[in-house]
Design a protein that fits this description.
Blueprint (H helix, E strand, L loop, with lengths): L5 H10 L12 H12 L7 H17 L28 H4 L3 H16 L5 E4 L4 H15 L2 H4 L17 E4 L1 H10 L5 E3 L7 E4 L17
Antiparallel strand pairs: 1-2, 2-4, 3-4
Helix pairs in contact: 2-3
Length: about 220
C-alpha cells in the first residue's frame, strides 16, 4: 500500500463522500463550458456550476452500470455505493494501475487531504471487456460510434485499459488536481472530462495542451 497503513485506508474510505462519477462524461458542449469557467475560478465561487455539472453527469453514469452477470470489481468496475481511495489497492481498479501513476496520485491525495480535500477514485484500471461494454452503451445512448467516441475510448486506445489513466472525485478534488496536479506530473487530458488524469509530465513540469474529448 506504498507505505500507507490499513488504518489510513479505512479513514479514507469513511471520510470521503460517496458520489460516483465516470470518465465517459456527458454532453460535450455543456461540460466544456462548465469546465472552462470553473477551472478559472476558485472552487468556492463555482458551487452553482458544480451542481449543474453533477446533475448532467449523473444520468449518464447510471446508464453505464455493469451489465447483468458481470463480476463487480473484477474487471475494474466500481459498483454504485462503493467508495475507493487511491490507497485501496486491493480493488483491481486501483491495484492494477501503472505504478508511477498510482504513486503520484497517492502523494497528491495525501497533500490534498492535508488541505481538507478528500480524494476518491471513481474509475481506474479497466479490462478490455469492461471498456467495450462502456463503448457499446455509449453507442446505444448517442446513436453512433462517432458520437460515442467523444466520451468513451475504444479498448485499444483507452489509457484506462493500460492502467495509465485515473478518474478522480469529488469535484472539489478535481479542481484541486487541475490546479496542483503538475507538481506530481498529473495532467487533465480531455477538456470535457475534468476528472480524467494521466501522468503526462515530470513532477513540476508543464502539462500538454488538453484534447477536446476522447476522440482527440
Amino acid at each position: 500500500m506504498d507505505g500507507t497503513t490499513r488504518q489510513e485506508a479505512t479513514r479514507w474510505r469513511t471520510a470521503g463522500g460517496g458520489r460516483r462519477a465516470v470518465a465517459v462524461g456527458t454532453g460535450a458542449v455543456v461540460v466544456l463550458a462548465l469546465a472552462g469557467a470553473c477551472a478559472a475560478a476558485d472552487p468556492p465561487a463555482t458551487e452553482a456550476a458544480l451542481r449543474t455539472l453533477a446533475a448532467t453527469v449523473a444520468p449518464f453514469s447510471s446508464s453505464l452500470a455493469p451489465g447483468p452477470g458481470s463480476s463487480a470489481g473484477a474487471d475494474g468496475d466500481i459498483p454504485d455505493g462503493t467508495t475507493l481511495t487511491p490507497f485501496d489497492t486491493g480493488a483491481p481498479a486501483v491495484g492494477n494501475l501503472d505504478g508511477p501513476l498510482l504513486e503520484a496520485v497517492q502523494q497528491a491525495a495525501r497533500d490534498a487531504r492535508a488541505q481538507g480535500i478528500e480524494m476518491t477514485v471513481t474509475s481506474g484500471w479497466r479490462s478490455k471487456e469492461y471498456q467495450q461494454r462502456l463503448l457499446d452503451k455509449g453507442v446505444a445512448k448517442y446513436g453512433s460510434l462517432e458520437r460515442a467516441r467523444q466520451f468513451v475510448n475504444t479498448p485499444e486506445k483507452s489509457a484506462h485499459v493500460s492502467g495509465k489513466a485515473i478518474d478522480i472525485g469529488p469535484t472539489n478534488a478535481d479542481y484541486w488536481l487541475i490546479q496542483h496536479g503538475a507538481r506530481y506530473g498529473l495532467c487533465q487530458v480531455y477538456a470535457n472530462e475534468i476528472w480524467h488524469f494521466e501522468l503526462l509530465t515530470s513532477p513540476g513540469g508543464t502539462c500538454p495542451a488538453q484534447l477536446p474529448d476522447a476522440a482527440g
